[in-house]
Amino acid sequence: MSKLQFDFEPLNRVLDERETTKQDAFEIFLHSETHPEKVFDIAKIIRDKNKGKIVSFSKKAFFNIVNLCRDTCSYCTYKAEIGESKLSMMNIADVKNLAKSAAKLRCVEALLVTGESPEQKYDEASRWLRKNGFSSTGEYLAHCSELVLAEGLFPHTNAGNLNKSEMNDLK
Q1: What is the pLDDT of residues 36-89, one digit of tens each?
Q2: What is the enclosing helix (H) or strand (E) of 13?
Q3: pTM of the complete model
Q4: What angle do the packed helices 123-131 and 137-150 form, to 10 degrees?
Q5: How far apart are CA 164 and CA 123, in angstroms?
Q6: Which residues contact 138 (CB under 8 A, 6 or more apart)?
Q7: What is the model's pLDDT at position 62?
Q8: Exposed, middle or buried: residue 71 (CB in 10 Å: 0-12, 13-18, 19+)?
Q9: Residues paired with residue 61 on neighbouring β-strands, in sequence order
Q10: Can you say whether residue 152 is alpha, beta or left, with left for phi > 0 and alpha for psi between -120 and 50 degrees?
Q11: Among 53, 62, 80, 146, which is disulfide-ready with 67 (CB 3.0 to 4.6 Å)?
């Protein structure tokens, strides 16, 4: 039992790890507008109990594999268009060189980022992939993952939607 640390029963239920209903969640949300410190205190107690107070950090290198994208999301600042100065289409040599540099700098992870299936929208992306020996961004991403793994980096991706075959290739 929580010793009723808070004067608000839904928060005590959370602290006691009792079932929390949708109504409880709504009441906690409303209560947090005027008493956010109580919600933060509960979160801290639960975090400390379940995770401890250790903060971990994993040094990583950012690999902007290709930032063309078939989608047009109004909020996205990552996507580039053909001809823009921020356009990135990393070839295999660039990926290997960055992986070697990242390993020398004691990075642990390689964050491999791509736009979502740009070859479906841009002929340039399709030609670029074929020129490098690949039929899809997902296939190229899997290959890049192997390259960085060979340098001792843990591949981590933000590639948007992938199909089942592409996800299996990344296992």
Answers
A1: 988 898 889 888 988 888 888 889 999 999 999 999 888 888 889 999 999 999
A2: helix 9-15
A3: 0.69
A4: 40
A5: 24
A6: 117, 159, 162, 163, 165, 166, 169
A7: 96
A8: middle
A9: 110
A10: left
A11: 80
